[in-house]
Amino acid sequence: MTGSHKDKSITRRRALAVTGGTVAAGGLAAAGYQAAFADETTGTDAQATASASSSGGTCVLMSSVTEGPYYLDGALVRKDITEGKSGVPLTLRITVQDTTDSCNPVSGAAVEIWHCDAWGYYSGYTTANPGGSAPAESEDGSTANDRTYLRGYQIANANGVVKFETIFPGWYTPRTCHIHVKVHTGGEKEDGTYEGGTVNYTGQLFFDDDVAAEIFALEPYSQHTGSYTELADDMVYDGGGAASGLLTLKPVHKKDPSKGYKGLITLGIDPDASNDGAGSGAGGTPPSGAPSDAPTGTPPSGAPSDSASPSASASSSFPSASSASSASSASASS
C-alpha cells in the first residue's frame, strides 16, 4: 500500500509556527466550525474566532499530497458546481488560515475543488473505468457539461471562508471517497475563472467510512457496485484526522441521510509556500478506459460528446476493502 506523500519543504516562518506550541485539534475544529457555518459573521465574532483558533499562537499546518491524474485548468468561479449531477447534497465550507501569522484568515484566497460524480466519473475523463460495475457516465440523464461538472473555485471572504454546493462524491478503484482541493493566492478572477498567482497548498478531503457506507446504499450511488476502499486502506489518507483532510460532517436530517450533509474543514496553509501537487505522490495515469489524450488547459465553452464506456464486473460488493487494497498496489491513481 502506498502511503501519503507530504510536502517536506519548510520555511523559517513555518518552522516557528509548527514548533512554537501545540493546538488541540478539537479546539481548532470547534472554532473553525463556528466561523464556517455562520451565515453572517460580525467583525467582533471574527476576531473572537481567530483568537480562539490560535491558542498559543499556532495552528495546524495541513499536509500537502498529490493532485492526482484528474486535474484540469480553467475551472469556473462559482458556488454551485453540480450542473445537475444527481447525488446526496453536500454543503462544503472551508476556512483558510495562515499558519505563519497566528492563524489569521487568508482573505482573498482562491479555493479550488474537484471530485468524481456518484458513479466515480470525473468531468474531462468520462470514459475512465471507475472499477466495479457502473452504468456509463452518459446514462446519468443530466445536462452537465462533461468538461466542467463538479469543478470550481470560490474566493475566501474576510473570515477566510468559502462555501460550495455540491454532491457527496462516489468512489472509484482503488481510492476511498475524497475531494481534491488547491488553495491559490496572488491571482485574480478573470473571464469566469482564476488566473495567475501561486498554488500554496494541494490536498484531499476525506469522509468517515460509516457515513460513506450509508450514502452509497442510496440511489444513484447504489448503481455502482464493487469493492470500496475504506480510509485505513487508502493510499493517500494517513490517519491524521482533520490535519490530514478528514471532514467534520453534520447531517441536515439525522434520520434521513438523503437530505444531505454539511462538511467542514479548516485548512492551515503557509502563504509563502508553493505546492501544486503535480507529478508527486500516488498520482500516475488515470485507470483503464481513460483517453490517451487526456484534456489539459481551459475547458471549452461547449459540451463534448457523451461517449463513455461501462465498467467491468466486480469481484466483490461494497464495503469490502480487501480487494480494493490489493488493486491499489497495482494501480495508483488519485
Descriptive key words:
five-stranded mixed beta sheet; single chain; disordered N terminus; alpha+beta; 5 helices; disordered C terminus; four-stranded antiparallel beta sheet; about 325 residues
Q: What does this molecule look like?
A:
The chain contains five helices and eleven strands; from the N terminus they run αααβββββββββαββα. With about 325 residues, it is of the alpha+beta class. The strands form three sheets. Strands 1, 2, 5, 10 and 11 form a five-stranded mixed sheet that branches. It has a four-stranded antiparallel sheet with strand order 4-3-6-9, with no helix packed on it. Helix 2 runs antiparallel to helix 3 (about 45-55).
- How far apart the termini lie comes to 13 Å
Counting DSSP H or I runs of 4 or more residues, the number of helices is 5
Structural class, judged by helices and strands? Answer: alpha+beta
Average pLDDT figure: 76
Strand/helix succession: HHHEEEEEEEEEHEEH
Rg computed from alpha carbons, rounded to a whole number of angstroms? 19 Å
